[in-house]
């Protein structure tokens, strides 16, 4: 039933104008639609909404990720815009120059990833799959 439907992410933000500025200045994204209390963004075939809420993001897991063709170039572009990347050195995940090799449970490399937080604490990622 859902396999052919469009899917979209929803993120709460405490300060909608601060979040709008972060997504514009740091990620180069402008909302496709502005609604009272919310912003709609379209990226490729997907979309996400930022909505104002008193709740805080948990920031404990990746809430949204973009797939890119060149993660090294993307990380450098984002760093040039002031994005601060997370560093990890935990069991099975270690970043080097902000980028981690992502492996399956058998240790086979299937991609690279990097993570950062938006102005509201949402944990966002970029990934490059290995062909």
Task: Please describe what this structure looks like.
- The protein contains two helices and ten strands, in the order βαββββαβββββ.
- It is α+β, with helices and mostly antiparallel strands.
- The strands form two sheets. Strands 5-10-9-8-7-6 form a six-stranded mixed sheet, covered by helices on one side. Strands 1-4-3-2 form a four-stranded mixed sheet.
- The protein is globular.
In short:
This protein has 131 residues and is of the alpha+beta class. It has helices at 16-25, 71-80; strands at 8-13, 33-35, 38-43, 46-52, 64-67, 89-90, 93-96, 99-103, 109-117, 123-129. Strand 7 (93-96) and strand 8 form a beta hairpin.
Q: What's the number of extended β-strand segments?
A: 10
Percent strand: 35-45%
Total number of helical segments? 2
**Structural class, from helix and strand content?**
alpha+beta
Query: What is the assembly state of the chains in this entry?
Result: single chain
Largest sheet, strands/sense/barrel: 6 strands, mixed
Helix content: 10-25%
Poorly predicted runs of 5 or more residues: none
SSE pattern, N- to C-terminal: EHEEEEHEEEEE
Looking at the structure, what is the overall shape?
A: globular
Gyration radius, in Å: 16 Å
Tell me the span between the first and last alpha carbons.
Answer: 30 Å
The overall average pLDDT, rounded, is: 92
* Biggest sheet, spatial arrangement of strands: 5-10-9-8-7-6
């Amino acid at each position: 039933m859902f396999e052919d439907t469009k899917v979209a992410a929803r993120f709460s933000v405490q300060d909608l104008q601060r979040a709008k500025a972060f997504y514009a200045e740091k990620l180069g994204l402008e909302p496709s639609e502005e609604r009272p209390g919310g912003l709609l963004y379209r990226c490729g075939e997907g979309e996400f909404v930022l909505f104002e809420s008193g709740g805080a993001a948990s920031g404990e897991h990746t809430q949204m990720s973009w797939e890119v063709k060149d993660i090294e170039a993307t990380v450098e572009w984002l760093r040039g815009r002031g994005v601060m990347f997370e560093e990890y050195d935990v069991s099975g995940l270690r970043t080097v120059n902000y980028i981690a090799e992502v492996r399956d449970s058998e240790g086979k490399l299937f991609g690279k990833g990097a993570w950062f937080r938006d102005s509201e604490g949402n944990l966002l990622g970029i990934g490059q799959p290995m062909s």
